[in-house]
Predict the 3D structure of the following.
Amino acid sequence: MEGGKTVSNKHENISLLDDLNENLKADCENCFGLCCVALPFAASADFAYDKVAGTPCHNLKSDFRCGVHANLRELGFKGCTVFDCFGAGQKVSQVTYKGNDWRQKPELANEMFEVFPIMRQFHEMLSYLNESLSLKAASEIHNDLHTIIEETEKFTLLGPELILKIDLVAHRANVNTLLLRASELARKEALRQLKNPKKLQKLAERGADLIGANLNNANLVGANLRGAYLIAANLKGADLRVADLIGADLRDADLSGADLTGSIFLTQAQINSAKGDYETKIPSSLTRPLHWRIKK
């Protein structure tokens, strides 16, 4: 099975992944501050005050940059340091609206603010599909992944009126079917190869309520933690290799010394919301958060 066809598909996947990766990174310099305007937030541990959707944040400057970006956490805007638009901001600003911003053309503002969160969902889906395509164990569905990636990308290139008419729920359901299958195949293969004799933590399951749970040194290898509530959970030293963490809430979870090598669908925003240290192992595609402890 190591013939020319397999090698060709591998090279095609690498090329597609490189293109997707570049487009799915936030480029604030080419965005009209959409996350600072279009989205609402409420006074909480994550935000210093209430803001309704469509109203600019008090900290947004005339050039669409954040005036307190270097001190967001200290000033009570921790939520801003966690948010990731997956590159949707610059796509809406420069592609959908061709560089026309909401200040110069206020008649576009409301529509632009409606399009942005939809575009973000498409880009988030592309990020997960992109990762699925990199999973060798999921090779049997790579053709299906290619097809839905192309379909999703086409949606992102439509005009704003058409984007607003897309059945987002139906498309997300189709995407989720493939993501579930990719995760199942990858975790099954990982468990087969790792042959970890330590008993898997029984509490670890999809959508589990593990808020504040003590999972110190728990074996969570290949666990399905999709949508799990792990807020403020103690995950010190936990083994989370190849665990599916899509949608898991890791706010203030302590990942000190934890091993997240090869974890599936883990995002930068998730680890930004958690605590960690110099011993925490994370996927090479992610960046160690600046607020984590980095020295002994």
